[in-house]
Design a protein that fits this description.
By secondary structure, the protein is mostly helical. It has a single domain, classed as Tetratricopeptide repeat domain (Serine Threonine Protein Phosphatase 5, Tetratricopeptide repeat, Alpha Horseshoe). It contains six helices and no strands. Helix 2 packs antiparallel against helix 3, helix 3 packs antiparallel against helix 4 and helix 5 packs antiparallel against helix 6.
Length: 132
Amino acid sequence: MKKLFISLVITLSSVVTFASNLENSNESNTAKLSEMIAKAEANDWETYTKAAQLSINWNADLALAKEWIDTAIAIEENAENLEVLGDYYVRLGQTDKALATYMKALSTDIANIEKANRESLQRKVMIYGRKK
C-alpha cells in the first residue's frame, strides 16, 4: 500500500509539472505570435491568418486567434482565412458553423484555390457534413 501511495504521489507531481510547463509554453507561443502580428503590415492578411491558424492548432489563446482571423477576413476574405475560421469553430465544438464556413470557403473562389487546399476543405466538408 505504501508503494502504491508513493507511486501515486510521484505520478501526480509529474502531471502537475507537465501541465505547468505546457501552460508556460502556450504563453510563450502566444507572445511570439503577438510579436509576429506587431511586425506585420496593416494589410497583411496572410500573417494574421497564419498567426490565427497556429494559435488554434496549439489550442492557445482562442479569443486572440478569433480577433486575428476576423482582421484577416476584414482585409481580404478568401478560402484560406475562411478555412482557418472554420477550424476555430471546430475547436470550440461549433461544427454547424464550421461546416457553413468551410462551404463558404469552397464557394468563394473555387477556381483559384490550390488543389491541396481544395482537397483539405472538401475533406472537412465531408467529415462535418456527415455528422448532420
